[in-house]
Specification:
single chain, about 290 residues, alpha/beta, Rossmann fold, two-stranded antiparallel sheet, 9 strands, about 15% strand
Length: about 290
């Protein structure tokens, strides 16, 4: 093991040991749930061993809870700092000028199909009603397209997000049970770990996508957590985090960074420009009564 002043790191991955342990456990739990447990249950059913069917189902439920705990802890740890990645080339400057969408929420929903895998998207919305209309329609399309969807919420509770998705006919309970849909509520106790950790987590999701025959991954993240503590340090961390991610990923991933307009407007003009340049596509949702 290589040692730092305060933490030890895994020799191969260079991750902190605590982070590596979480990721390793996450990988094992996911493999067991997606590749193994259903075979055990089917074998027990064929042997007419209801006692074993009950046992394996209980274990499956326990492991599903373990997986959710690991994902929640990991996402809360990894939501925000820098990692200079080499997995993709960042698109900046004049490349962004042709990648802008503007319109009300309904008009934006009609253009979501034009967003391609690999894109790192910034979406600036005027109110929660507009955001709900957009993310619910997008989630429905993504799930119908056989994608994995990870939805990180801050200004809404997970129950409110589930209600929004159910209102347009999404079978939320089924998709969550099948691990097609993960909804995680951010909390004010979030602390900023490593952007390296976040990309490592995406690598695990990508491997699960391939094992399960999924077409891609969509990450929809509310960036409001960065504004919970209103100070310059958090703004710096926000810019640093966004700059650590590529404008285009080299895996079949779409990442949406959602900003409430009032939060985005707290930034200085240069900070706004820097933030925009770190995203491949810009979406500005217009307020129907103001814009």
């Amino acid at each position: 093991m290589t040692q730092s002043s305060n933490t030890s790191k895994h020799e191969t991955t260079k991750l902190e040991n605590t982070t590596y342990n979480i990721l390793a456990a996450l990988g094992r739990e996911a493999d067991f749930l997606y590749s193994t447990i259903d075979t055990y249950i089917n074998d027990a059913q064929k042997a007419n061993r209801q006692d074993l069917v009950k046992m394996w189902n209980t274990i499956k439920q326990d492991r599903e809870r373990h997986l959710q705990m690991l994902i929640s802890h990991f996402v809360h740890r990894s939501i925000g700092v820098s990692y200079k990645t080499s997995i993709a080339t960042r698109q900046t400057g004049n490349m962004l000028s042709n990648k802008e969408l503007r319109g009300n929420a309904f008009e934006i929903t009609q253009q979501l199909d034009g967003i391609n895998y690999g894109e790192h998207v910034i979406l600036i919305y005027p109110n929660l009603d507009s955001l709900r209309e957009i993310y619910s329609q997008y989630c429905r399309n993504a799930l119908e397209n056989n994608e994995l969807v990870l939805l990180l919420t801050y200004y809404e509770t997970t129950d409110r997000v589930r209600q929004t998705l159910k209102e347009i006919g999404i079978e939320v309970d089924r998709h969550e049970k099948e691990k097609n849909l993960m909804i995680i509520e951010d909390i004010t106790k979030t602390y900023f770990g490593s952007g390296h950790d976040f990309l490592f987590f995406l690598d695990i999701l990508n491997k699960q996508k391939e094992k399960r025959g999924k077409n891609g991954i969509s990450v929809i993240a509310d960036m409001g957590i960065f504004y919970h503590f209103q100070n310059k340090t958090n703004k710096d961390v926000l810019i640093k985090f966004e700059s650590s991610l590529p404008a285009k990923f080299d895996i079949k991933l779409k990442r949406f960074c959602n900003y409430h307009k009032r939060d985005f407007d707290r930034l200085e003009e240069q900070e706004k420009q820097d933030l925009l340049e770190h995203h491949y596509r810009h979406i500005r949702v217009l307020h129907p009564m103001i814009d």
